[in-house]
Amino acid sequence: MTRLDRILVHVCCAGCASYVLPHLAEKYSVTAFFYNPNIQPEDEYNLRLEETSSLCTLIGIDLIEGECEISRWSECIEPYRSLPERSERCWSCYGLRIDKTAEQAAVLGFDCFTSTLSVSPHKVHARIVEAGERAALKHGVRFHPEDFKKKNGFKISVERSRELHITRQDYCGCLMSLEEAGRRRAGRGAETPNPEKRGSDH
Questions:
Q1: Structural domains counted in the chain
Q2: Fewer CB near the terminus (10 Å): N or C of the chain?
Q3: Is residue 152 part of a domain?
Q4: Do residues 64 and 84 make contact, with C-beta atoms less than 8 angstroms apart?
């Protein structure tokens, strides 16, 4: 029997993973990696981790929990804290999480790595690929550059989230993105979001 390549998949949340992990499992031996020190507050971090763990158990995929290195993340994005979403603030956040995934993939002997980030229409695939290729070169592990939102990937992730009662967050993860989501809602005449009231897609 031919051995499947082992891929380590950075998972940002269970909603995105609900499509990406089964999709990749058709061609790879998949392990999930939860490394998201950007996610705040603590209750939100725990919710996303718990839902990711439950999903992985349900679909039979191993999960590795990375450290919640908030200070490292804060230091990484500090020069760009005042910038808006889809700026160097986000590119630095992508880079930190993807680099950590590549590092773990190298240490643990995986053949390649990737991230669920690109399934979201709010993420910039080209920047994810840049971060992935940079991390691949640094750590010597192949990067899988697929844009998971294509072929209805995002739509399927939303449908599966509803079927499995997985939370669809209305902000990416950091407190700045939470504030930005609040301003967007206020501009539409809706109440400001908070971690206790969700229902949209990040």
A1: 1
A2: N
A3: yes
A4: no
Residues in the chain: 202
Over residues 24-49, the mean pLDDT reads 98
Residue type, 189: G
What is the Cα–Cα distance from 159 to 89, expressed in whole angstroms? 30
> What residues make up the domain containing 71?
6-187
Q: CA-CA-CA-CA torsion for 76, 11, 143, 121, nearest 10 degrees?
A: -90
| Within a domain: 196 | no
Q: How far apart are CA 59 and CA 7, in angstroms?
A: 16
Contact 170, 199 (CB under 8 A): yes
- Helical H runs in the chain? 14-25, 42-59, 70-77, 88-108, 125-139, 153-164, 175-187
Question: What are the distances in angstroms from CA 48 to CA 29, 139, 167, 178?
Answer: 23, 27, 8, 15
Which pTM was predicted?
0.91
Residue 198 lies inside a defined structural domain of this protein: no
Tell whether 200 is covered by a domain. no
28 CB neighbour count, 10 Å cutoff: 20
Q: What is the CATH number of the domain that holds 47?
A: 3.40.50.620
Q: 136 in the Ramachandran plot: left (φ > 0), alpha (ψ -120 to 50) or beta?
A: alpha
Tell me how far apart the alpha carbons of residues 33 and 72 are, in angstroms, rounded to a whole number. Answer: 18
